[in-house]
Design a protein that fits this description.
The protein is α/β, with parallel strands linked by helices. The chain has seven helices and 13 strands. Strand 3 and strand 4 form a beta hairpin.
Length: 368
């Protein structure tokens, strides 16, 4: 575990190794646990990040209904800046030791950022993307820091993926386990246990939605700290899939065929449950936590209508959902594919302040 401060101080409690892994977000191919999956050059039974992704990217994106959403055009030059507030950062915290398909236990870790001075604050649990193949908790450090500096404790969590032989249910269990752990140790992390939000991007957006929509579903609670609640009070979903059977609905014919393949990661991850218990729409109701949803009009990995159908379903059921459409924006930060500018609309002050304002309105915030 490593404890550090943004004034340069560092305390090493053990030899925690930082992993600099790209925030991959694909539904491409690999060989994992003996099965060939589209897009990655990996062989054998691998636990951990796959290598050399070859991602299926649609050549076209069909226009979709924007009448129930707010369209924004963030200025890519108006980027967030961090460093205005003192933070304490603790990395490499082991919060769960679930069994992998190999029978071995996994050490699932989280990184936590805590505003200074010390006092009880609302908690935001960040769920990284990775195409359900990897879950690099180190991702989106700038975005997480910006939110932490706004007065929130921010915890970025690792979860089991296809690379570990896991499925959607396992990943949801892991995130809920992290929430229970943080509630059980609220005093150690300055967490107000009554004010918790979950925020995810892409695959993480899907998981964040599932975590929020399954508040109170005990079938997704497993592991330790079961005397604690895994309920959240707000959800932020950035371009996450919802109904996986329609994830390529806005794309070209070749992409639709690729996503429909039984060896596609999303197919392997959700299996026969894609249209039922793995589908966020199954759990939509009138008393769900408030949602903030985003999508880019030029997302070529997850159809923009994926968040639209979830947004409309939530509002139709009597819950509250706000959806923003970023004109011309793609699937988040795609710098791992050589596109160094794709992430800029998502790290503007306009976009990030929408998130901060929503969190303040939903779970409150104590100014630092």
């Amino acid at each position: 575990m490593t404890v550090s401060y943004n004034d340069g101080r560092t305390k090493d409690r053990d030899q925690h190794r930082r992993v600099d892994t790209a925030n991959l977000d694909s539904f491409g191919e690999a060989v994992i646990n003996g099965k060939r999956i589209e897009g990655h050059e990996v062989t054998g039974s691998q636990v951990g990040p796959p290598a050399a992704p070859r991602i299926t990217v649609s050549s076209t994106v069909a226009a979709s209904d924007e009448s129930t959403s707010t369209v924004i055009r963030p200025d890519p030059k108006d980027q967030i800046t961090c460093g205005r507030t003192s933070l304490k950062s603790i990395s490499g915290i082991i919060f769960s030791k679930p069994r992998l398909s190999t029978g071995k236990a996994a050490d699932l870790q989280m990184d936590v950022q805590i505003p200074i001075p010390s006092k009880k604050r609302p908690l935001v649990v960040y769920v990284t993307g990775g195409g359900f193949v990897i879950a690099a908790k180190e991702a989106a450090l700038d975005l997480r820091t910006y939110v932490a500096e706004a007065g929130f404790v921010v915890a970025s969590v690792q979860y089991r993926t296809l690379s570990d032989g896991a499925n959607f249910h396992d990943s949801i269990e892991d995130i809920k386990s992290a929430i229970r752990y943080l509630r059980a140790n609220a005093d150690n992390f300055d967490v107000d246990p009554d004010r918790v939000a979950v925020w995810g991007e892409a695959a993480g957006g899907y998981l964040a939605s599932m975590v929020g929509l399954t508040n109170g579903y005990k079938s997704f609670d497993a592991g330790t700290n079961l005397n604690q609640s895994s309920t959240v009070q707000a959800v932020v979903d950035k371009f996450g899939p919802s109904d996986a059977t329609k994830v390529a609905a806005d794309f070209d014919a070749q992409s639709k065929a690729s996503y429909a393949s039984p060896t596609n990661p999303i197919s392997l991850y959700m299996g026969a449950d894609a249209a039922t218990v793995a589908n966020p729409l199954t759990y939509v109701g009138a008393s769900k936590p408030p949602f903030l949803i985003f999508h880019g009009t030029q997302d070529r990995l997850v159809s923009p209508t994926q968040t639209l159908i979830l947004h409309n379903a939530l509002n139709a059921a009597g819950s509250r959902s706000i959806r923003y459409v970023l004109e011309g924006a793609g699937h988040g930060d795609m710098s791992f594919m050589g596109d160094s500018e794709s992430g800029l609309p998502w790290s503007t002050k306009e976009t990030m302040d929408i998130i901060v304002d929503f969190l303040r309105a939903s779970i409150g915030a104590d100014q630092t």
